[in-house]
UniProtKB/TrEMBL annotation:
Entry keyword annotation includes Signal: yes
Keyword Cell wall biogenesis/degradation found: no
Domain Organic solvent tolerance-like N-terminal: 59-146
Range of residues in the leader sequence: 1-22
Protein name per Swiss-Prot or TrEMBL: Organic solvent tolerance-like N-terminal domain-containing protein
Organism from which the protein derives: SAR86 cluster bacterium
Amino acid sequence: MNRFLKLLVLINFCALATFSLALPDDLNQDMLTSCPARSESFLDQGLEICRGTSDEPAEISQGSLKLTGLEFRIEREQGLIHLITATGSPATFQQQPEVGQVIVYASGSSITLDNANQIIIIQGNAAFSQEGTIETTAERIEYDIANRKLDATQMNMVIPSTATP
């Protein structure tokens, strides 16, 4: 299968699924995937791999959600996205968690979006921030989206004196 056809297959598969980590308005938008270097689809295994370069990383976006990295592994179960793992130097994530809240930013060697458990796992030089509220660095950070809870290993944290909960 040529590169263009593989890219079209990957984009169509990604656009079919909703991604429950995004704002309610984000869920009504298509998920767009850009694979500037190469993409592979293993349809029988429910796996897509998308690659970018250091000059032009791969990217997934859906409304306010944006994920970049050198490589994505998109894993599906029963046609729905179960896990997305981005690796890079660094892989990055941003998303507005709720209407009226500031954007959450994360970066690390790898970022895994666990759709089923509503958890983001950031590993390797992990950083997490939400403007005006918190800035955290650690080797590993887990962010429970539903409960807005951070769990970090060997954490360093800055909480601004004017932080709001």
